[in-house]
Amino acid sequence: xxxxxxxxxxxxxxVPPPADGFGAPVAPPAPKPKAGKGKKVLRVVxxxxxxxxxxxxxxxxxxxxxxxxxxxxxxxxxxxxxxKVSTKECGDKDANxxxxxxIDDTFDVNACGKNGEAALAQQWDQEKFVLCLNPIK
Length: 137
What we know:
Radius of gyration: 37 Å
Order of helices and strands: HEEEEE
Low-confidence stretches: 57-63
């Protein structure tokens, strides 16, 4: 009785191509396509749009008018045509006005009448109002 020959492993030159479950050769995976110039331009444009939205969106919310309530104190800076208003504690050294009255839905600074020595009309989106102010002495 003869012994069967030992199975031989194929050498590097004899490696058969990979096959699917049915013995057919499997093609190597296709290389990933590189991003085209159009996609790169689209990404850059999207980043620019996002940066613009962030810049103007943040400034819109942080520079919005202050709708203070009667009894609160504010600091008014800036010019007559572009005033900047921020709420402050009434004991704060930067507070220069106290809000005496708030009149909604108007720009008429004369609406304060005898309520306060100064008036400041403000608008934010559709909301408009006048702050009637007394200087803090």
